[in-house]
Amino acid sequence: MKIRSVKLREAHKNSDGVSSFCCVLWDLQAEHIITSSSSDRSICIHDALLPSNTPKTLDHHRDGVTALALSPNSTCLASGSVDHSVKLYKFPGGEFQTNITRFTLPIRVLAFNKSGSMLAAAGDDEGIKLINTIDGSIARVLKGHRGSVTGLAFDPNSEYMASIDSIGSVIFWELHSGKTLHLLKSIAPDIGSDLSIMNVLSWSPDGETLAVPGLKNDVVMYDRDTAEKLFSLRGDHVQPICFLSWSPNGKYMATSSLDRQVLIWDVDHRQDIDRQKFQDGICCMAWKPSGNALAVIDVMGRYGVWESTVPSSMTSPTENVPGLQSKNTNGLLLFDEEDQEISGSGSLSDLNEDNFGESEPPNRKRLRKQSAYDDSLDDENNDDFGLFPKVESRKRVSHVKKESLENRNDGLKNLAIHARSKMQEAFQPGVTPVQPGKRRFLCYNMLGSITTMEQDGYSRIEIDFHDTGRGPRVPSMTDYFGFTMASLNENGSVFANPCKGEKNLSTLMYRSFSSWATNSEWSMRFEDEEVKAVALGTSWVAAITSLNFLRIFTVGGLQRYVLSLDGPVVTAAGFKDELVIVTHASECLLSNDQMLEFRVFNILEGAQPHKGRLPITPGSHLSWLGFSEEGQLSSYDSKGVLRVFAKEFGGSWLPLFSGTKEKKPEENYWIVGLNASKLFCIVCKSPDLYPQVMPKPILSLLDFSFPLASSDLGAESLEKEFILNSMHLSQIQKRIEEMVVAGQDSTLLDDEAFNIEVALDRCILRLIASCCNSDKLMRATELVKLLTMEKSVRGAIKLVTALKLPNLAERFNTILEARLIKETSEPTAPPHSDINSNINKNLNSKNSGGRPESIVQSSSSKLVPENAPSKTSPSSESNRDSEPFTSLPSPPLTSPLFIKKGKLPEKEKVLKGKVRQNQNIIKEHMEVKKGDVKEGDEQQIQFHRPTNPFAKTSNNQDKTSLFDSIKKKKIDNAVKT
Fold first, then answer.
1. Which of 217, 284, 368, 974 has the most C-beta neighbours closer than 10 Å?
2. CA angle, corner 234, sides to 230 and 239, nearest 5?
3. Is residue 771 scored above 80 in pLDDT?
4. How many of the other CB atoms lie within 10 Å of CB of 46?
5. Cβ atoms of 891 and 941 closer than 8 Å
6. Interval 162-176 mean pLDDT
7. Any residues with CB less than 8 A from the CB of 576 and at least 6 apart, and which?
């Protein structure tokens, strides 16, 4: 089994080196991780998305914090300490609210019920206190344990509570009556006086099973109604289990042991599916509410997140989470379900809204055997009955629960919406988070960087270009606005900040690098409207705001356009005349997937050429958005997948890179940009997700790689090279078309297209060789049809002949013969479009060194002498299903076709082995040798690929294309006639 390494970072210092019991929690939205330690009086609230940020600390206890609990709606945080107190805070702000109760001995465990209306607290004192969070009153004290209570768990149906003590005894409590239902003595390990571990227990999310550490280094499952032993999970733990945690859907369980191992269990199959061994024992764990991750903390106060805890081939731990709901959720539990609205109380903010003394009396029809309880309880406790749900017949509870669930569809829908992952917040590409006392990036792209550091209430901003010769030297400036984002190009930079001050103003400022005007800097203010993202183009500045407005300005500061967007912005980027904006298309799906939409605007033309959904990997969020150096729209998500937008198939996103396959476990990629063949990123050592300004980060160049399936050919690298070259060639062809339409010179791109064609043919020949060696002859036949150069086709024929595949050689001959016959039999067709005519003129002018050619090439690449009479057949208008070719007869084809005319170099001796032989054949037929074909000799026929009308033409005869051969042939015929 593959063992992955989980990196831990220090949350709480343990200077004396003594093990301590530490806690770790997630909030409902999985945005924060809360940690504490019995050796540290501080509580730390960490940013789960930006773990490198300094955590928020709560320092209200006078001694170590031994217990934490967070209300189900994540609005109230409770903490217990060695100082005997239980404190409540608002969350996530951390504002202290009250000391809700005190004990005479240290606290060991805290737990909220399903609705958050009840907090259970226990420790070394005798008794478990049940505290009403609405008014802070003690509803009941449960007594029965002989040792310190170390574990508490409310039944998800709010009918029972289970507790465990340090000597291993478990008690099932009936909440409505406060009675003991079952007492299971010494079924768990006796932890003695070791305060770094706690006996724990946990209900399954559906409330049917109670999990308790066993005496045989296992986990034992007990029935909720009868407390009978159901089954156990026993694996490779060699010491007692000290903590366990159910996944949100109850399909998996994580267990930690004194042997320092953490095991992940498939509960249904009762077997462990993954494991991790740590340097020190793990004393607490928490599953991420949304996503496949597990937070852990060890006895030395170091915490970390185990990503992809469950193998991706298995069901996600957050899929099909049981939709349980406590019978009442307003904290009073006094009313019938049909009269009760869904509420998320439990926060102290409800103290003035819901008064316990003013509540209605309990509905007697809902109390089971009320008179039997009246005799055994005090009158003043009778008023507290409403705080606990009554227990109907325990033999029928499963049936009753199923019926009640069927009648709660509306409530479950509301809860499902509430439990969804929060929509991704807006971000600016190339920005790093605030780090107190450190310089950070406001912008980092392929051109340069903008850095800032706050000092004495203001910041100093510096702009640097990677290539000092590409951009001007820009003096630093003082930032009095507190800018948090920026964008940079060759012409200038734009800055923005969030709303500040009494008037709640957000500022946008543009700074030009080169202008004939003395004061080209300008700024805009927005009242009650916050700038969320900015972008720059050749002659425009864009700002997207919290009101879903897209504001377009000129570089001089003229307000040009104000457009309304469909949803909240996520990010934006600009390139020349194009602006791309990503917005939320809707709320997150039940699977917690983000629903994003992109739009591409052409600011100069006032058009919107592209719009659609932005694909990201399931369970991920968008991490980067931008354009390549060639202007191709690209995106990168948190799962490490890079996608580029291509116009094929009506506009599609192609996955060009997968970071999960390329990077090492201890690395994270921070994307900077890309070009046609490389991805530029900064490699950050885990757990850091962002680079530091100092020392200066180093750019790493990564090769693209399509996520191809494992081929039976065993030539994945060649297949990736083939797809990338094909895609690159298609992009260059489109750029040539655009340049020709614009009347620009495309000579350099013609050369680049020809070089890619040569590389593509070389790759195809190597693939053909692999197919022949693997007996994939059908695939080899498909590949030979994709060859561009005539010399490559003949090389393929020679290759298969040398491999003693005469049938395949004959088929290759037939394919080439059929194509040549088609070329020579097609009648002349009139020119098609001005675009293709311009392209052909461009190519012809290049062949003649800029002088006019006497040959006119049509859109079908057919060459005809200008003064020669037309030889068009009567059927010329009807035979244009594909590219028309010259009607002159082709030279007779004789076998073998690979014999050259003119003097050939002597053949070397045949080398042993097919691989060596194949390499020599490919090399011989792909190298361009001067003097092989002399001027005036019969031209070599080159086959032209139908999808590429931009074949390279040159005076070098080795690079002569099929159309040049036909051109010279026709000239000779015209001269003779």
1. 284
2. 125
3. yes
4. 23
5. yes
6. 93
7. 537, 538, 631
Order the strands of the 440-444 sheet from edge to edge: 440-444, 448-455, 458-465, 477-479
- Checking 509-514 for CB contacts under 8 A at 24+ apart, the result is 509/481, 509/483, 510/541, 510/553, 510/555, 510/557, 511/477, 512/555, 513/471, 513/472, 513/474, 514/472
Q: What is the helix, strand, coil percentage profile of the chain, to 5?
A: 20, 30, 50
Q: Among candidates 946, 965, 967, which has minimal Cα distance to 733?
A: 946
Per-residue pLDDT at 664 exceeds 80: no
Confidence of residue 921 (pLDDT cuts 50, 70, 90): low
In the structure, what pLDDT confidence band is assigned to residue 89 with cuts at 50, 70 and 90?
Answer: very high
Q: Which residue has the tokens 């407005």?
A: 549
Q: 406 by DSSP, 3-state: which?
A: helix
Judge contact between 254 and 266, C-beta under 8 A.
no
Q: What is the DSSP letter of 731?
A: H
| Residue 827 pLDDT class (50, 70, 90 cuts) | low
Read off the tokens for 400. Answer: 């009753």
Could you report the per-residue pLDDT of 516-547, keeping only the tens digit for each? 777 788 999 998 899 999 999 999 999 999 99
Residue partners of 45: CB distance under 8 A and separation at least 6: 32, 33, 34, 55, 56, 57, 58, 91, 92, 94
628-647 in b/e form (b: 16+ CB < 10 A) is beeebbbbbbbbbbbbbbbe
E strands within 844-909? 855-857, 863-865
Give the whole-angstrom CA distance, residue 547 versus residue 564: 8
For 866-909, the pLDDT digits (tens) are 333 333 333 333 333 434 333 334 344 333 333 333 333 433 33
Q: What are the b/e assignments for 109-147, b being 16+ CB within 10 Å?
A: bbbbbbbbbbbbbbbbbbbbbbbbbbebbebbebebbeb
Q: Coil, strand or helix: which one is 584?
A: strand
Half-sphere exposure in the Cβ direction for 242 (13 Å, CA): 29
355, amino acid identity: N
- Rounded CA separation 736/758 (Å): 18
Tell me the per-residue pLDDT of 253-291, one tens digit each, with 9 for 90 and over.
999 999 999 999 999 999 999 999 999 999 999 999 988
- In whole angstroms, what is the distance from residue 84 CA to residue 807 CA? 89
The alpha carbon of 837 is separated from its chain's Cα centroid by a whole number of angstroms, namely 46
Q: In which order are the strands placed within the sheet that holds 607-613?
A: 569-575, 578-584, 596-602, 607-613
Read off the pLDDT of residues 595-637 as tens digits, 9 standing for 90 and up.
Answer: 999 999 999 999 999 999 999 999 899 999 999 998 999 999 9
Determine the angle formed by the axes of helices 777-784 and 806-825, rounding to 10 degrees. 30
Lowest mean pLDDT among 15-19, 366-370, 449-453: 366-370
- Number of residues that this document lists for the chain: 977
Strands of the sheet containing 667-674, edge to edge, are: 667-674, 678-685, 699-703
Distances (CA, A) of 325 to 28, 62, 343, 901: 16, 37, 11, 86
The two tokens of residue 714 are 């065993």
What does the alpha-carbon distance between residue 763 and residue 815 come to, in Å, rounded to a whole number?
20
Please state, in angstroms and rounded to a whole number, the distance separating the CA atoms of residues 303 and 47. Answer: 13
Q: What is the Cα–Cα distance from 740 to 447, expressed in whole angstroms?
A: 28
Q: Which two tokens stand for residue 633?
A: 């729209």
Confidence of residue 942 (pLDDT cuts 50, 70, 90): very low
Average pLDDT of every residue of the chain: 77
